[in-house]
Write a structure and sequence with these properties.
Blueprint lengths: L11 H9 L9 E3 L7 H12 L17 H11 L1 E5 L10 H14 L3 E2 L1 E3 L6 H10 L4 E5 H4 L9 H10 L3 E4 L12 H10 L5 E3 L7 H10 L3 E4 L6 H6 L7 H6 L4 E2 L11 H9 L5 H16 L3
Parallel strand pairs: 1-2, 2-3, 4-5, 5-6, 6-7, 7-8, 8-9
Helix pairs in contact: 5-7
Protein name: Amidohydrolase-related domain-containing protein
InterPro entries: ACMSD, Amidohydro-rel, Metal_Hydrolase
Organism: Gordonia sp. MP11Mi
């Protein structure tokens, strides 16, 4: 564990501290599958919600990396992040297509960004999802909690079919943390996976707080993976501690766990997100796979 976790955000010292966490592992950098870039007016509303400690948060949540877009991009690059995503999501109908257009432009201008798209249960969703796939989307984002929709809504049947056919991974926030939604939890996802057994899902936040149930789904279905976003950090451990008796299974599942940070919306520094992974003490090889190897293989990153 390094003793430089108090380096100021956006400082050269912080970038150096982040790189110290992985340079000795022999990997070229980090692949962060869960970062947020979205249109300015949308991000402003997201930040305003965090600032208000809204009902789904229930606690103070200071945003550590509040800055203009290009400064956030350069910060990730300074950390040694080789690839990242632009996780964006609609909270209502007639929004996803526009978000996808913005994300395509963002990815075109930022080649290190995994071209990200999203969807919502609405007429025409399958059409714009196929369009996004044809345009080179590399990952989708689904936010069951914020969107307040069921992942097994019939309006998504053709969406899941198209994604399954193309084998484009979906980062899906489907756990019931930080507060349960109408359709969160493992049961709808298990139903979904029974319909589409090869659907490539990346369950965000390790499935917080239904850790054991989502771990089981990742063990049972070949293409179900987990991302570490905010998991194991002091912030998350306060309200939803990860059961230590599950860690041997987490170790065994090392090929299916990917690093995610939730940058820029995290209430602590990036070094702490990495330290939370390192202090699990699951071995350097496990850390290599989580920080780089698993995502590199999944997304074809050299």
């Amino acid at each position: 564990m390094c003793d430089d976790h108090d380096a100021q955000p956006f400082s050269p010292a912080e970038s150096t501290a982040v790189r110290k966490r992985f340079e000795h592992l022999g990997i070229p950098g980090i692949i962060d599958v869960h970062t947020h870039f979205m249109p300015g007016r949308v991000l402003d509303k997201v930040w305003a919600y965090f600032d208000s400690a809204g009902p789904m948060l229930g606690r103070e949540w200071p945003i550590t990396y509040r800055a203009e877009e290009e400064q956030r991009v350069e910060t990730l690059r300074g950390f040694g992040v080789l690839a990242y995503s632009s996780m964006l999501y609609p909270h209502k109908a007639d929004m996803a297509r526009w978000l996808n257009s913005w994300a395509a432009d963002f990815a075109a201008g930022h080649p290190d960004c995994l071209h990200t798209s999203t969807f919502y249960p609405e007429p025409g969703a399958a059409e714009y999802v196929r369009t996004a796939i044809d345009a080179g989307t590399r990952v989708f984002k689904s936010h069951v909690q914020v969107g307040d929709y069921s992942p097994i809504d019939p309006l998504l049947d053709d969406v899941w079919a198209a994604i399954d056919d193309a084998q484009v991974p979906v980062v899906i926030h489907c756990g019931s943390g930080p507060a349960p939604g109408s359709f969160t939890g493992p049961t709808p996802i298990e139903t979904l996976m029974r319909r589409f057994p090869t659907l490539p899902l990346i369950v965000a936040h390790m499935g917080t707080p239904e850790y054991a149930e989502f771990l089981s789904l990742a063990e049972r279905f070949e293409n179900v993976r987990l991302d570490t976003t905010m998991s194991f950090t002091d912030f998350s451990e306060q309200d939803a501690p990860y059961p230590r008796d599950l860690l041997p299974r987490v170790a065994d599942l090392g090929d299916k766990i990917l690093f995610g940070s939730d940058f820029p919306n995290i209430p602590y520094g990036y070094t702490h997100a990495l330290d939370a992974i390192i202090r699990l003490d699951l071995g350097d090889d496990w850390i290599r796979r989580v920080l780089h190897g698993n995502a590199a293989r999944l997304f074809g990153i050299g």
